[in-house]
Each structure stands twice: as structure tokens, then as C-alpha cells.
Amino acid sequence: MRDEAGFMQRAIALAEQGRGATAPNPCVGAVLVRDQTIVAEGWHRAYGQPHAEIEVLRDAARKNVIPAQCTLYVTLEPCNHHGKTPPCTQALVEAGITTVVIGCLDPNTTVPGGGKTFLEQQGITVRHGLCAQACQDLIADFHTWQTTDRPYVIAKLATTLDGKIATRTGHAAWISTPRSREEVHGLRSWCQAVLIGGGTYRADNPSLTCRLPGYSGPQPVAVVVTRTLPEPDQSSVLLAARPDQTIFWTSEAESKSARAACLADLGVRVWGLRTVHELLDIREGLRLLRHNLGCHYVLAEGGGGLSASLHTFGVLDELRLYQAMKILGDAQGRSSFAGRTIEDMHEAWNFRLLEHRLVDTDLYLRLRPTE
Q: Which of 52, 87, 241, 323 is 20 to 30 A from residue 171's alpha carbon, by CA?
């Protein structure tokens, strides 16, 4: 039985294996199908390395599969330009492939020529739009990098069933399961910055590092957004252990204070942000992370105020929610999103579900704000 959607879903799953490593390129996956069976697979593994189309052709060669006898399913329109690697379109033509099924077209308008058009001009049958939404979601980060000057922002929250991230006293250890926390450290391994608010900094005294067993890669920069800078107290893990990897976002006035100068003496960077509607303009801080540090992914792990601010400024790209099978039942418990005053349900923020699964006893939800 023909299962084209299943073939594309497999290509999407392959593409996800390159998440983080391919930036600033998109994640792309591809499969070759013959007689309704996947016979070769490939994905873009890392920036500067071969694209998914080249990888699937190499896999076919290892398995003695003849590409000309197959249909190629690829999540993103093949490139038709020279970048870090030669154009994939030419490789497909040389391999003799006659049919290509594309999930979504390339949103990158800065490169000349379309892969789909070129392939069609070579006599190849091209169809696009299979699992289009899922393929567009796959490259949502790439779309952000192409259309804005900031990183892609992922907010991670561990909550109870009633949406609380801590008790009224701030106690939050631990809401989620050890396996959920391990997944979060996996996120930290490919996000270049971890963002928290001043309340989380003061309450948790975090290190904001990736602590996966055996991990030896670069650590994310720690970013704290707060109107009031801390004293250079060595009891702070960030100030004592990694001041040169710590950035404070604060008001323009506070960035010129004596506390800011003392932090700078430790090696800490203090960036003053303008105020918009009584909120620090975190859009400006995100742009600086991209421009100054080449940051493509930011993982926000703050409290309800920070989560709400990200959404308010329109920079919350993705929400990863770990919901524990617990209920506090306390109206004064700390909420996952906080700081708004609304009276009508029409003012609620809406999200679209991308993925859901169980992580031990936690319910994991990956969501994206709707327009």
C-alpha cells in the first residue's frame, strides 16, 4: 500500500537528528523509495557537511541501490547554488533520478535560482507540498534566521497540571522527572545561550550548563535579564565559576551603575536595554546575541514573567512543556506565564501542538504560538 506521508515523515525524523549542528543551515532529511520501500536514507548532519540529498545518494551507493530506479522524498527543496557545498540539484540529475517529492519550498530568497524549477527543466517530475506544515515546522528556525536578525527562541517550562512552576515560596525541586531534566540538558547542548530572569537567578543560583554524562562540547552563555544587577557576590555560581560566560541584560541606567562596573571587573558583560511599555526590550538583547556572538538558538528557562515577556514581544518561537502529574491547588503558586491582566477569553494566547509524548510520567508538549 502506498504511504507517501509515511516516507516524508521518516525523512522529517531523520532531519531532526541534525538539529543544532546544522545551524545556520536548515535541518533536512531525505529517503529513496523503490517498490514502496525505503531503500536509502540521509540527512544534513552538520553545517559545512554534505546536504541530505548527497548523504542519501551515498547511502544508496553503499547498499548497491540504483537511484534512477527510485523516487526521492526530501523535506526541503534541493539547493541550486554553490555555498559550502556544490548544488544538490546537479547531483540528482547526474544520479538519474526521475521523480522528486518535496515537502516545502526553500524560503531563502537571498540565493539565486530555484531547485524545483531547475529539476523540472531537466525533465525530472517534481511534486511539492507533501506534509507541508510538518516540513515548514521543521525549518521554522531557519525561517527565523532568514527573516529576522535574532536567534530562534525556545522556552522550556516544567509545570504541574494546574500550570504552576513553583510553590508560593519559590520551591520547584523537582516538578519534572529525572528523564525530563536530562532532555533539557540535551537542549542546552545545542543552544548557544540560556536565558533566565532575575528572580530565577536569585532563587535558584543556577549554573545553566549542560551536564549530560560525557558531554565535552561548548557550554551555553548564561543570560540574566533583570532591572537590578546583583553585587559581585562570589556565592553566585555564575559569577564565581563562569563570569566570562555570563551576560546581564538590564536598564540603560543600571548598566552605567557602580554595580555594573564591578561585574565588568569580574569579566561579566552588562548590556543596557531600552524600556518599552515598562518592559526591558528583550528583542534588542536577542539581536545583540545574534550579532555579537553568532547565537542561533536561545533556550529560555525563566519564570512566568519572562515567558510572558517573550510572547509579548513576539519572540517566543517554540514552547517545550514538561507537565508533571501533580496539582498544587494554590492560587498563589507561581504560574508558567504571569504578569497579564485580562477579562475576556478572546485575549488568551493560543498555541498549536507540534508534538506530544510521555517522558516517564511527565507529559511532554511541543507547541508554537499561532499568529
A: 241
